[in-house]
Design brief:
Elements lengths: L12 E4 L6 H16 L12 E4 L2 E5 L4 H15 L5 E4 L2 H14 L12 H4 L3 H11 L4 H10 L3 H5 L4 H15 L6 H9 L7 H18 L7 H14 L1 H6 L1 H11 L44 H8 L37 E4 L4 E5 L2 E4 L33 E5 L6 H6 L2 H9 L7 H10 L9 H8 L17 H12 L14 E5 L3 E6 L6 H5 L7 E3 L4 E7 L1
Parallel strand pairs: 1-5, 10-12
Antiparallel strand pairs: 2-4, 2-7, 3-6, 8-9, 9-10, 11-12
Helix pairs in contact: 3-5, 3-6, 5-8, 8-11, 9-13, 10-11, 11-13, 13-14
Length: 549
């Protein structure tokens, strides 16, 4: 966010006034001391993933107590609910969606709370949208989901011109680590007479089709805006396939969207785009499974991959308290027991009877306050647990409690080079990292009644958790288990107890965060490197972070 990071404090302008101060030298000394103190004070807390922008905060106090008085004044502003001085957003995606909408409509310059982004006001709308999206490429799936929910996706997306959209497409491919296919590859895949879009692939794309239809339904395949949309959809459905056989996947998705139903002679030609990334990565949350046809390798891999396609199947830690109140919408704008993140804009103050003000300011909390999608309360196995769906009422944030949080430890196992080689070799059997995670968890007797199971099913585009049984068996099962025993067997880790971890999981289309109590840290797990932050996992399509509170 233009340098503003979560769980951080940034003051944009500091002004100090005061009597009883010996001139400019005295004011400079007080300013230096105050800035140092402000780095260590306890700033007021905001709920969840919300961002709070404050126009101005003023405080009057003797110099030695000015920092504490300023934080108290900030808390008072937060509690006041003054809409002229305080603006709140439930998440970063919501904030960015509102900013993009105002940029497109030319209204951002009228809002005091967008002052931090004033450098965008001078740009044409397409360039402003491109720059802001480029700054947040890792959150692009979540941001598009939020724009769609607000019915603003089409308005913002169609503001991009061709050149801007193509630059975004190439930047996204480089960031995600996959290779954009040449035009002829996608055309060739579509022209194969025996290749039809599988019904289950159509099923898994249905929620995303609803999200994107208004923005792209009139665009030809030659339009970079449509191509970028298809890439984002592919990232959601089958990141491993997008890495290994992008032409096949994009051709099938275009067909599913009805883009390529015109005769070949009348069909628009794709531009020859070949942005190169590291061919060991693929994009976001997946929902596809593939038949047991072995994966092909070499330059004709895309040709063989089409025959294989069969079944579609987004600091300061907050306290861990698995109680229903933690998973319901915030009752008030500010929750005193959740931590902040960023204070922005300016401060005025003085000496003796000093005065301080901040203008505007922003505070961001560590987890979202959006409505809950999944079970609230204790993570007790329950066959009637509500299904977490990809097309949920709030696609930006899925939250639930699990007793099998250790399943995410296996992401670090699957991310090791030897395991990655097996995923790359057998991607056509399970083109989604979620499928590999689920099947590997079953080797450790994953509790199928735990809420994490319907969550994985939703990531795979399945209507019911029971449909997970239709996935192919774990590819290279014996090789993976041999690696697990070699790496973790000596410490006695590779057993069902590894999965037992009481935790909260917060997921967006771009990020996955696990929150567990500090008491749950296990030294053998830490020494084995299983609970480190995986970060960006291209084969899963998510940025994964593990937090201990």
């Amino acid at each position: 966010m233009n340098g503003l990071q979560p769980d951080s404090i940034a003051i944009h302008r500091l002004r100090i006034h005061g009597g009883g101060v010996s001139g400019a030298v005295g004011l400079e000394r007080i300013s230096h001391e105050l800035r140092r103190e402000l780095d260590f004070v306890s700033w007021p807390k905001v709920p969840g993933e919300s961002w709070v922008l404050i126009r101005q905060v003023r405080a009057r106090s003797p110099a030695g107590r000015l920092a504490d008085e300023l934080t108290r004044a900030t808390a008072a502003e937060l509690q006041s609910g003054d809409a002229d001085n305080v603006v709140r957003f439930a998440s970063l995606a919501e904030l960015l969606a509102a900013l993009l909408t105002d940029l497109v409509r030319g209204q951002a310059i009228r809002r005091w709370y967008w002052r931090r982004w004033a450098h965008l006001f001078r740009l044409p709308a397409s360039a402003a949208v491109e720059q802001l999206l480029t700054e947040h490429l890792s959150r692009l799936p979540s941001l598009c989901a939020r724009l769609a929910k607000l019915r603003r996706l089409s308005e913002v997306w169609l503001t991009l011109d061709q050149a801007a959209a193509e630059r975004l497409l190439q930047a996204f491919a480089r960031r995600s680590g996959f290779v954009l296919p040449a035009a002829r590859s996608v055309e060739r895949e579509h022209l194969k007479p025996t290749q039809k879009t599988p019904p289950l692939l159509l099923q898994s794309t249905a929620p995303l089709y609803q999200q994107w239809q208004d923005a792209v339904r009139s665009l030809p395949l030659s339009d970079a805006r449509l191509q970028l949309a298809l890439v984002l959809i592919g990232q959601q459905i089958a990141p491993l396939m997008l890495l290994q056989a992008p032409a096949t996947l994009l051709a099938r998705l275009a067909e599913a969207f009805g883009v390529m139903h015109t005769p070949a002679a009348q069909r628009p030609t794709l531009p020859s785009v070949a942005a190169r990334g590291t061919p060991t990565a693929a994009p976001a949350a997946a929902r596809a499974a593939v038949s047991a046809t072995p994966a092909a390798s070499g330059p004709d891999a895309n040709d063989h991959a089409a025959a294989a396609l069969h079944t579609a199947v987004e600091g300061v830690a907050h306290p861990y308290t698995p109680h229903p109140k933690d998973y319901a919408p915030a009752a008030s704008p500010i929750a005193a027991d959740v931590s902040p993140a960023a204070l922005a804009e300016s401060i005025e103050t003085g000496a003796g009877e000093a005065q301080a003000g901040a203008e505007p300011a922003s505070l961001r909390g560590p987890h979202d306050s959006a409505p809950e999608l999944a079970a609230a309360g204790a993570a007790q196995p329950d066959d009637s647990h509500p299904l977490l769906r990809a097309a949920s009422p709030d696609p930006d944030f899925t939250r639930f409690v699990t007793a099998q949080g250790g399943l995410l430890y296996l992401l670090n196992f699957l991310n090791r080079p030897e395991a990655q080689s097996l995923l790359e070799l057998h991607w056509a059997l399970l083109p989604s990292g979620w499928g590999w995670l689920y099947r590997l968890g079953q080797t450790l007797r994953l509790d199928e009644r735990d809420p994490i199971v319907p969550f994985i099913a939703a990531q795979l585009g399945l209507e019911q958790p029971a449909e997970l049984q239709r996935l192919p068996p774990l590819p290279a099962r014996q090789e993976l288990l041999n690696l697990a025993r070699r790496w973790y067997g000596g410490a006695g880790l590779w057993q069902p107890d590894l999965l037992r971890l009481n935790a909260r999981i917060h997921a967006t289309p771009s990020h996955l965060d696990l929150y567990a109590p500090l008491a749950e840290v296990r030294l053998p797990v830490r020494l084995a490197g299983l609970d480190i932050d995986p970060g960006w996992l291209p084969w899963l399509g998510r940025v994964v972070t593990i937090h201990y509170d």
